[in-house]
Specification:
The chain is of the alpha+beta class. It has 2 domains: about 70 residues, OB fold (Dihydrolipoamide Acetyltransferase, E2P) (Beta Barrel); about 150 residues, Trna Endonuclease, Chain: A, domain 1. It is about 15% helix and about 40% strand. It has 3 helices and 15 strands. A 6-stranded antiparallel β-sheet has the order 3-2-1-4-5-6, with no helix packed on it. A 6-stranded mixed β-sheet has the order 7-8-9-12-14-15. A hairpin with a 2-residue loop joins strand 8 and strand 9. Helix 2 runs parallel beside helix 3. It is globular, with a radius of gyration of 18 Å.
């Protein structure tokens, strides 16, 4: 996935109220921008970090800039979770996730039951495979990528909904898109942040939920899902 327009460099001054950040632009001046990441952004939001931001062509938008990438001194980190689905779809279609290859149909935002909507439905004849995608920006002190970086009631709900689809005879897959290259030792649930999520994920895997984590190469020009699959930690 290529960024549609060149990103604008700057330096992060502060991130606050979850969805706001102040940035000093390299071109001069400061700007209050939209931060699209609802999590805690642990290790991704320290003042002084280099950032790349996008500018919306929509002249009526209140905040015309959006935070896209943060540099932690070692690598670029993709902090916009809304890109994870587009990156995942591109990767699935390209066959870089072997477990999800060979399906003839791919639909996005598919309803399941009364209140559930999954990110993807893959089909092959009568076979169905429901896929939920999560963006990963956290790396723990053990060098492993981890999710979530904040307590997520919604994330627990998604796991339970995937298990419901599995109980009906369909495949159920949770795909983690890791948007940084410094946590490739493996992937695990961040039980130290959300014990319920970690326990729910652990139990779901014993019941047949498929869990995969792939590195998405992230840089100033775009984000691309790779065939680098991270081993899943025993605690997940």
């Amino acid at each position: 996935m290529d960024f549609p327009r060149p990103l604008i460099p700057g330096t992060l001054l502060r991130r606050y109220k979850r969805f706001l950040a102040d940035v000093r632009l390299d071109s001069g001046g400061e700007s209050t921008i939209h931060c699209p990441n609802p999590g805690r952004m642990l290790g991704c939001a320290q003042p002084g970090m280099r950032v790349l931001i996008s500018e919306s062509p929509n002249a009526s938008r209140k905040l015309k800039h959006t935070l896209e990438l943060v540099h932690n001194g070692a690598c670029w980190i993709g902090v916009n979770p809304s890109f994870a689905n587009a990156v995942a779809e591109e990767g699935i279609r390209a066959g870089v996730v072997p477990e999800l290859a060979g399906y003839s149909g791919l639909a996005r935002e598919v309803r399941h039951g009364e209140t559930t909507r999954f990110d993807f439905l893959l089909t092959r004849g009568q076979e169905k495979c429901f896929v939920e995608v999560k963006s990963v920006t956290l790396v723990g002190p053990d060098g492993m990528s981890a999710f979530p970086d904040a307590v997520t009631v919604r994330g627990v709900k998604h796991i339970r909904e995937l298990l419901a689809a599995k109980a009906e005879g369909d495949r159920a897959v949770l795909l983690f898109v890791v948007q940084r290259p410094d946590g490739l030792l493996g992937f695990r649930a961040a039980g130290e942040i959300d014990p319920l999520y970690a326990e729910t994920l652990r139990a779901a895997r014993t019941k047949g939920l498929e869990v995969y984590a792939h590195w998405a190469e992230t840089g100033p020009n775009g984000i691309t899902l790779t065939d680098v699959r991270l081993p899943i930690g025993s605690g997940s």
